[in-house]
Amino acid sequence: PLCTPGCGVPPAWAARLGATGFLISKCCFPLFKAKPGKAKRVRTIFSSEQLARLEQEFARQQYLVGQERCLLASSLHLTEEQVKVWFQNRRIKWRKQSLEQQQAKLAKMGLATPQR
What we know:
Helix content is 53%, strand content 3%. The protein is built from four helices and two strands. It has a two-stranded antiparallel ribbon with strand order 1-2. GO terms for molecular function: DNA-binding transcription factor activity, RNA polymerase II-specific; RNA polymerase II cis-regulatory region sequence-specific DNA binding.
């Protein structure tokens, strides 16, 4: 089989991926067939349920490590790596939004801030 049960890739997708020449690595990331020695990882598409739960956990705490990450990944049928990267990306988005809000407040008060 291309993928193990509970790895996060629905069986129908795994079958379709195999039929179209895709491969699934140990951590269940689909890979494009590319030039020998080169492989490009396909972007993970999260379900709305997975995103809601990830956002809920992020609102509770911005850093998720160890057993908490393992349990969340397992409950969402994702890999720990997928959860780790989602949290990294979400922290970047949060920082960017916070900076934009601060700049908007300062601009509203007539104070300019240097752009980074």
